[in-house]
Amino acid sequence: MPELQIELIPVLRDNYVYLIFDPATQACAAVDPAVAPPVLAALDRLGWRLTHILNTHHHHDHVGGNLALKAATGCTIVGYGPDAARIPGLDVAVKDGGTVTVGSATAQVIEVSGHTLGHIAYWFADHAALFCGDTLFSLGCGRLFEGNPAMMWASLGRLRDLPPETRIYCAHEYTEANARFALTLDPDNAALRARTREVCDLRSRDLPTLPSTIGVERATNPFLRADVPELQRAVGAPTGDAVAAFAEIRHRKDVF
Ligand code: ZN
Ligand code: FE
Predict the structure, then answer these.
(1) From the CA of 59, how far away is ligand 2's center (Å)?
(2) Is residue 166 part of a domain?
(3) Is the pLDDT reported for residue 1 higher than 80?
(4) Bridge-partner residues for 99, per DSSP?
(5) Catalytic pick among 59, 83, 119, 186
(6) What is the CATH number of the domain that holds 61?
(7) Amino acid 239: pLDDT
(8) Known catalytic membership, residue 115
(9) For the chain, which terminus, N or C, has the lower number of CB atoms within 10 Å?
(10) Chain mean pLDDT for the chain
(11) What φ, ψ does residue 137 adopt, rounded to 5°?
(12) H helices, E strands: number in the chain
């Protein structure tokens, strides 16, 4: 299977737009284009023609470039069907369990509500790549704007269960701040300390900390570790109550 080429485009303050290019067919998808001009510039530089937009959720910093890109390229916009009224230019409605085809590559659609209702992730299983929007960040997770802790914990669990080698492409560069917070809860976690050193080094050179992998996040991300007794103790949640621990970790991060 020919490898997909994945290009990371930093936009706005801390967003990433990803371009997914399939050399076999020349198909190219933009994931969560917050704005159009830097995406068009990248396409131009790389000599790729945009065929698809994949939206993970309706927030403006993820769909803001939809209409301009569609006008410029005629691309097809894919997103969560029931959110059609909130996703500009939606052409192809998908939902949990569905699939999306970009050239010769296929992504499975995984609903991961919590940050918003109807947030989806795109998992290219054959290419070990996950585009998870604002649900899972490296060492963090999205704020709960529309969902509740139980819902988000279940959503993150679905992503945590993916193969450990899966590369995760998150929509924001929040990793360094997330690491500072994670260390307050989990200071003795050697994997977290090692990842933090790596992250600080990358950021000091203005390099992205993404993609991370599911395996790394499983070992280091406190929001994926709310069912670990040490984390539950660290936030004073009853032992065995992962949702209570997750809710407390999320609350502490909100006010960190
Ligand atoms: Zn968002
Ligand atoms: Fe966002």
Answers:
(1) 6
(2) yes
(3) no
(4) 108
(5) 59
(6) 3.60.15.10
(7) 93
(8) yes
(9) N
(10) 98
(11) -110, 165
(12) 9, 14
